[in-house]
Amino acid sequence: MLWDDMHKNDMVWPTVAEVHEYRKEVYATVVDAIENHPSFDDKYGEGVVVNQDHPMWALFMGFEHERIHLETSSVLFRETPLHLVQTPANWPPIHPSAARQNRPSRPVVGVDYPPNRMIPVKGNDIDLGKPADFPSYGWDNEYGERNVNVPDFLASENMITNGEFWNFVADGGYRNKEYWCEDGWDWRKHRNMKWPFFWEQSGPQGSHEYNLRTIFQVVPMQWDWPVDVNYYEAQAFCRWKTQKDGSPTSQPYRILTEAEHHLMRPKEHDLEASRKDVSADKVMVTPGSEFAKGATGANLNLAFSSQNPVGSFPPSTSGHFDVTGNAWEWTEDHFNPLKGFEVHHVYDDFSTPCFDGKHSMIVGGSFISTGDEASVYARFHFRPHFLQHSGFRLVASDAKAPATHLYPGNFSGQAAARDVVVADDTNDDSNVYESEELLGMYLGLHFPSSGSDEGISSILNHKNSPLHGLSFPQRVAQLLNDLQPQRTNNRALDIGCAVGGSSFELAKHFDHVEAFDFSDSFITAAQGMQKSDRMKFKVPIEADIHEEVVAAHNEGVSAEMLNRVNFFVGDACKLKDYSSEIGTFDGVTMANLLCRLPDPMACLDALPHVVNKGGVVVMVTPFSWLEDFTPRSKWLGGFRDPVSGEPLYSIDALQTIMEERGFEKIHDEEMPLVIREHQRKYQYIISQATAWRKQ
Fold first, then answer.
1. Are 595 and 622 a contacting pair, CB within 8 Å?
2. pLDDT value at position 415?
3. Is 501 in contact with 445 (CB distance < 8 Å)?
4. Taking 50 as the threshold, does the pLDDT of residue 450 lie above it?
5. CB count in 10 Å sphere of residue 102
6. Which of 84, 279, 311, 695 is deepest in the core (most CB within 10 A)?
7. Residue 177: how many other CB atoms lie within 10 Å
8. Residue 683 bridge partners (DSSP)
């Protein structure tokens, strides 16, 4: 999605009457849930705590989502021709300064808008992140943690006003390509922008005389209100200002960062204060009618329904005006997850689709930001070309901006970042399956004949030895063949093939096998076995004692069968992306994979795209869910219903999921396996093997 993605709105919309009826149904459903849902029963008179694990967290999610759409809809109203909108009853008044008449067409600094000096801010460490037990709703991206070291910087006393921005417009800022990044200039040309969108020309062409559009009114231009611009326009102004006046530091002017913003907040209501005292997050205790009052008053939480002159409210501890409220401030940061980020299962794509390096964070809230949007913990974002009640302030520093970028650089050239791999310090992409020790363990599991020439048995010989747990990969492949999938193209797919033992067994029964695994070292080993290389690995005996053996194929694997397999490194969560390249299959195996995926549903959702009609999927898993591999919100089961307390098992969820995707369960058995740790210690695992035929 770039600035020119305009076709997403080519759709048939419901009528106003249909929307109204739907809203009434939703309202009735929500009221019924509040009044009657058993999770609100206060059985012991201790009150009901609704936290992220409570089913009614979803209600508060809905309330806060509606607040977001109140604000975004207000921007759409502001864009709509005036004759098509009307002011709702009981709507808060716009700021009284809008009643000023006889506003000059050419603003003068110090008369029509204030000077905007650069105020130094002492650097410090900032700890981002909302406590998990904070007693208010929070979006998933707010939780987690990150410590940011913020160097000293300078920030303009006020947000950039309409008066200041008028000088950029009058000086030809919208005509001069050198002030704009590539994408920003393309956006400007596409929209034929000559001044900010909410300015309305009121004089002859070229006179630079303007009125100002608010949500429901057109008022005389308010030169001392913050200008509403998008990210591209803000950055263009910074370049123009640097060229025009020079920067007070060794680096050019830029906009704020998220961490710098938190250093500028009033100390009475900053992150540190709110962690000690909930009421320090002012929105927790202050209605909109009271938000503008007092020593830390601000135009926030719908105190007014428009912006106000900068400097109308007391400055923050750092001496800056409108750090909170009035208008959002664009930042240099890409929208990003904090360390420990985890989606909530009710709305698992609220934040993650926007961790793409194409969304810029906005901070501070606007006059119409309410609820969580007005919280000190709020972390919101928009695409750089989007309109919003948002502006910016100038920042300058000698040090590099303490911003978080998911891609190299910032929005100055999104085209260059579209296909770059995300490099975020909050995500550890290391693969636990790349160690030499684990590779040896899996070679022993997949090729149990290994070590026979060296006199090393797979299991130490003893009475009641669990030999039935050997050759697990081969038994999985044999089960698929025994279930007689309908043969359409006689191709098989081995998802999570590890070092290839199951793949070679499948090649005994299918003309072609596609096999992939997330581990580079596993695939390299599988390809080595395919070429009949002498693959040596160490078998653990006791403590530091190991014996080196040569990996050996099971009997019956011919050179012809080896050549039927194509191995590649791949991600099971991206199976749908591979479907157009790898084709479709009569048989699919997934051995002890499902509960090791970060997003099991992504893999399950892709199965209908790769399995032929009548084809069979054999899925073997112990359902051993661990947060090290799979976020709790992605587990299929293995937990209790938060309301009824009933256990929710993964196999039941899997059956529902597969049936919804057009598969019928045709087989279910317990399948044991043995994995050697050393000659006197083994893992004995009983996986559940199910098979599913595509209808």
1. yes
2. 32
3. yes
4. yes
5. 5
6. 311
7. 11
8. 675
